[in-house]
């Protein structure tokens, strides 16, 4: 059995489009793996599937073996996006996104266009719509960097955060010397209740402390 050039083009193009759609969402969220990574994963998975079906003629008895290798092999790429830092794991959603993107690519490669499209819609719905509808559930991790004139200012800030329900998991303080004098640079690792815009919420919260200056907020 041979596939026409039109059929092959449709399979590969749809994998590119659907994988790219998930990648754009991840790009919008400023995650490690973005548009290029996701569309390459989907396109490569589809191509592996097409090759396993049509590239070896009738001698290949079990074309699903290649698909099985894609499923296990994508785990290495996903593992590369997972970061363990300061007792917190990051990148699990991105790794899971790459895994399901590979499945979508395989579905396109086998010609299951409807299943691939439905899966893509479900992924985007789960990542965006559901996340927006229930932002109050769960918690999110925030890395906050700021400068302060004294250790007492930092202690008061941390005490106020804990009093307000923020979980200060860890913090690091360094002394900095510049031409303008000495100051302290603090890096806080927080766990806060999930909200509609966590970064802006943290910035607004920090505005009440006039003696500190925010350097960076990473959610």
TrEMBL record:
Transmembrane as UniProt keyword: yes
Intracellular or extracellular location(s): Cell membrane
Pfam family, one: MgtC
Keyword Transmembrane annotated: yes
Gene Ontology CC annotations of this record: plasma membrane
Domain of life: Bacteria
Chain ranges passing through the membrane: 6-24, 36-54, 66-84, 96-127
Topology with respect to the bilayer: Multi-pass membrane protein
Family in the record: Belongs to the MgtC/SapB family.
Assigned keywords, A-Z: Cell membrane, Membrane, Transmembrane, Transmembrane helix
Domain MgtC/SapB/SrpB/YhiD N-terminal per the UniProt entry, residue ranges: 12-132
InterPro entries associated with the record: MgtC/SapB/SrpB/YhiD_fam, MgtC_SapB_SrpB_YhiD_N
PANTHER family named in the record: MAGNESIUM TRANSPORTER YHID-RELATED, PROTEIN MGTC
UniProt-recorded name of the protein: Contig65, whole genome shotgun sequence
Organism from which the protein derives: Prevotella pectinovora
């Amino acid at each position: 059995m041979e596939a026409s050039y039109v059929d092959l083009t449709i399979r590969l193009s749809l994998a590119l489009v659907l994988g790219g759609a998930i990648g754009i969402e991840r790009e919008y969220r400023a995650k490690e793996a973005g548009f290029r990574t996701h569309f390459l994963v989907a396109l490569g998975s589809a191509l592996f599937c097409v090759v396993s079906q049509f590239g070896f003629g009738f001698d290949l008895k079990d074309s699903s073996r290649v698909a099985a290798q894609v499923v296990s092999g994508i785990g290495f790429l996903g593992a590369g996006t997972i970061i363990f830092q300061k007792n917190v794991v990051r990148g699990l959603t991105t790794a899971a996104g790459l895994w399901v993107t590979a499945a979508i690519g395989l579905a396109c490669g086998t010609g299951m266009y409807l299943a691939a499209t439905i899966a893509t819609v479900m992924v985007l719905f789960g990542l965006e719509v559901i996340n927006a509808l229930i932002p109050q559930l769960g918690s999110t991790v925030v890395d906050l960097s700021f400068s302060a004139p004294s250790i007492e200012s930092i202690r008061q800030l941390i005490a106020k955060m804990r009093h307000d329900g923020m979980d200060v998991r860890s913090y690091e303080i360094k002394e900095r010397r510049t031409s303008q004098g000495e100051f302290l640079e603090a890096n806080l690792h927080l766990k806060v209740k999930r909200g509609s815009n966590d970064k802006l919420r943290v910035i607004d919260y920090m505005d009440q402390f006039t003696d500190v200056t925010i350097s960076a907020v990473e959610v």
